[in-house]
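This part of the workshop introduces the protein records we will be handling. To make this concrete, we reproduce a full record directly below:
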Amino acid sequence: MKVYNIYENQEPGLGSFRDERGQITDSFYQAQMNHACIITNRPGAVRGNHYHKYTTQYTYILSGNLIYYSQPVGSDKPADQYVASPGDFIISEPNEIHAMKSCTEGSTFIAFAAGPRGGEDYENDTYRVASIVVSRLSCFWVPVAGLDRPSIRC
């Protein structure tokens, strides 16, 4: 899992422009995308608990917070966890199990896919697994490399 906030730090090649009308901020550049969808979640909703063999999934948080879980396929270690906020961009590479759990206010995000992951192909590269979501969490604030703000880690 790779995380960055498009408003707080820029990935190489990405830019941002601001004037009196507002702001334009790049999310990604020179990336081939095959699909995008907007996903809304009620408070406490869990999504994911799957991985893709060929697809890279990009998740961009629009509103609310969610706990993003990530674990390499075949790993016996607990999943990494990150509390994502608006502006966060999370990248899950192929063979990375990922799951999300909305926090108390719910959440909305856009899921982009580079690979077979939309329309008629929606389930063709989706491999379901047992839940990697931790039911009880102990959260605390920690600095996250590359982000200008601390993040909640669980």
In short: The mean pLDDT is 84. The two ends are 15 Å apart (CA to CA). The chain has one domain: 2-11+32-153. Residues 2-11+32-153 form a domain with the Jelly Rolls fold (CATH 2.60.120.10).
